[in-house]
Each structure stands twice: as structure tokens, then as C-alpha cells.
Write a structure and sequence with these properties.
The structure is a single chain. By secondary structure, this protein is an all-alpha fold. It has one domain (3-123). 71% of the residues lie in helices and 0% in strands. The protein is built from 5 helices and no strands. The protein has helices at 3-15, 18-25, 30-66, 77-86, 99-123. It is elongated.
Length: 131
């Protein structure tokens, strides 16, 4: 599902929630409802979506470069894995050609996912702890 559709569907769902209806009934303006009720519930969704989209793009680019469909003039982790595979390092004799790019892809993807989860805990009103 596209990002805009995801946000739109969430906003339409939030619009029908009881706390929005009660804010409208109490005379709150549109700007107030957007800034105090809608936006805090949407911001967590955007960060989580971003945190999951970036690792998918990194792995996708590495896979395309490994298959030889990326820019041949650019050195990427996928291209490094492709060069290592072409040199025959997958037989186990030269493992150090494969391990660093693989670890780099895994660590960078995991770091984006962990950042996304921590931002979700920070911004999601349902996950906030009472202080």
C-alpha cells in the first residue's frame, strides 16, 4: 500500500473516533483537532513506515547490484558481493570478501529498524508511559 493511502486511511479512521467527535462537539476548530489529535496519531505511523521502507530500499539496491542490474561505475555493497562471487570467494577460501558487505547491510538495516521502533515508542500516544 502506498504511503499516501496509508496516511489517508488512518486519518479517515481517526476522524470517526469518539475523542475527535467530542472535540468537534465541544467547539474545537479544525486546526486544533489536526494539531492536537490527528497529527500526534499520524506521526508515529510515518516514522515506522519510513523506518521499514529504508531497509527495504537498501536490501533491494544491494540485490539489484548483486545481479548486475545496478550502476557498474558505483561501488556498492551489492557490487562488492557480486565481485566476490565472481572471484569464487563463495567456496569458503576468501570469506573476508563476503562477510563485511553482508554485515554492513545487516547492521544498517537493523539500525534503521531499531530507530523506527524507538521513534514509535517516543511519538505513539498509545505506547507512551505515564510519568
Amino acid at each position: 500500500m502506498g504511503f499516501a493511502r496509508l496516511i489517508r486511511s488512518q486519518v479517515l479512521t481517526l476522524r470517526e473516533r469518539p475523542f475527535i467527535e467530542s472535540a468537534k462537539a465541544s467547539g474545537a476548530g479544525t486546526a486544533y483537532i489536526l494539531t492536537k489529535h490527528i497529527f500526534p496519531n499520524i506521526i508515529a505511523l510515518t516514522y515506522v513506515n519510513l523506518a521499514l521502507s529504508v531497509p527495504a530500499a537498501i536490501v533491494g539496491e544491494a540485490a539489484l547490484s548483486f545481479l548486475g542490474l545496478g550502476d557498474q561505475n558505483q561501488i556498492t555493497w551489492g557490487r562488492m558481493l557480486d565481485l566476490a562471487h565472481s572471484a569464487g570467494s563463495t567456496t569458503g577460501l576468501t570469506w573476508w570478501w563476503i562477510v563485511p558487505p553482508g554485515i554492513g547491510i545487516a547492521v544498517l538495516s537493523l539500525s534503521f529498524i531499531l530507530i523506527g521502533y524507538s521513534l514509535d515508542e517516543l511519538f505513539n500516544p498509545r505506547l507512551r508511559r505515564r510519568r
